[in-house]
Model the fold of this input.
Amino acid sequence: MAILPRDFYNGDTVCIARELLGKYLVRVLDGEPLVCRITETEAYVGRCDRACHAFGYRRTARNAVMFGPPGHAYIYFIYGMHYCLNFVTEPEGEPSAVLIRAAEPIYGIDTIRRLRFGTETPAKMTTYQRKNFMNGPGKLRKGLSLSIVDNTTDLTENELFVCDSPADIGLPCPPSPPPEVVTSGPRIGVDYAGADKDLPWRFLLTPKR
DNA sequence: AGAACGATCGACT
DNA sequence: GTCGATCGTTCTA
Done:
């Protein structure tokens, strides 16, 4: 199975957030696959989580896609200038999603760099740019040229999807990363969520020491 | 109709 | 580590 099927998303949001680490996010833009390896995620569960936009099954025009079937993109505008990419999870009617917080670019790097830093493609990136390529939800979505018009995109079609390996879509396998471990902790930017702010629903892939 | 705020980023100390 | 930018979404009335 090249593209992860809808069943992958039809389950427990916290488990799926962890399982997404190390998988490959693919965005096909003008026929070119932009591929990055997912390194950080967060789970949001409407049923029980005050940090979730759909807490208590509160449904609005913005979060409507979370109430539909799993395996769709939920993209919203935040802080007056950023968009964030989420994957809708759980069976239809259980509004939940995984926020994709960070990834490492693997293929299509020149295009991703152009999308991130403008039409100029510097021969050499600063160390600041190199270290901060896609290490945040707003940066990641910009590097993949996603915006509000991509909200509700079906992740089982050919334009935006996840796979286990670049080989699944006919690209060479990248070198294996150095040994890594999964760590978890409280989510970012949810201090308003009462006790739920401390839920350890942020997952990161970090080098093993 | 108006006000408050946010699942962030980048610049700066 | 701190802090300002900036505007759609949501809530109140």
User: Anything to note?
Assistant: Chain A is about 15% helix and 30% strand.
